[in-house]
């Protein structure tokens, strides 16, 4: 186990990628706080919470941010006719800044030095 390097707030979904990065961060010596954002997806948040804790997260935040996601990101994108390749509305891409904003808020609240994500690629 590496020497303690500080605390990181991880955008966590409970899937393979974010679970692997949670374990890897722990192995690298970071304390990990997992953050799950409910933006309207169908997900078993309680199962994801249990998994994160079982993998070594020291704390798990789960926040319902559907209203602000719709009001501050989706609705302005619809008003601006924000399309991807002129074919379909942006969806997942719009969630990223909303989630990132919450990651930073939690990092500030917790005194964490880092934020991270575990997305593929």
Q: Architecture, CATH level 2?
A: 3-Layer(aba) Sandwich
Q: Compute the gyration radius: what is it?
A: 15 Å
The tally of structural domains comes to 1
Which structural class fits the helix and strand makeup?
alpha/beta
Fraction of residues in H or I helices: 40-55%
> Can you list the strand order of the major beta sheet?
3-2-1-6
Write down the CATH topology: Rossmann fold
- Per the principal axes of the C-alpha atoms, what is the gross shape? elongated
Parts with pLDDT < 50 across at least 5 consecutive residues: none
CATH superfamily annotation = HUPs
Strand content: 15-25%
Largest sheet: 4 strands, parallel
Mean pLDDT: 91
Please give the alpha-carbon distance between the first and last residues.
25 Å
Q: DSSP helix count?
A: 4
Structure, explained:
The protein starts with 5 loop residues before the first strand and ends with a strand. The protein is elongated. It has one domain: 3-Layer(aba) Sandwich (Rossmann fold). The chain is an alpha/beta fold and 121 residues long. The strands form two sheets. A four-stranded parallel sheet has the order 3-2-1-6, sandwiched between helices.
List the main descriptive attributes of the protein structure presented here.
alpha/beta; ATP binding; Argininosuccinate synthase; about 120 residues; 6 strands; arginine biosynthesis; 4 helices; urea cycle; two-stranded antiparallel sheet
């Amino acid at each position: 186990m590496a020497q303690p390097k500080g605390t990181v707030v991880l955008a966590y979904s409970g899937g393979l990628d974010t679970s692997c990065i949670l374990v890897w961060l722990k192995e690298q010596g970071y304390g990990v706080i997992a953050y799950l954002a409910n933006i309207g997806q169908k997900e078993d948040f309680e199962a994801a919470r249990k998994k994160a804790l079982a993998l070594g997260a020291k704390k798990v935040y789960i926040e319902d941010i559907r209203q602000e996601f719709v009001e501050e990101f989706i609705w302005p994108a619809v008003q601006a006719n924000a399309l991807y390749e002129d074919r379909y509305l942006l969806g997942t891409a719009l969630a990223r800044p909303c989630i990132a904003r919450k990651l930073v808020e939690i990092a500030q609240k917790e005194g964490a030095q880092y934020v991270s994500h575990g997305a593929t690629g």
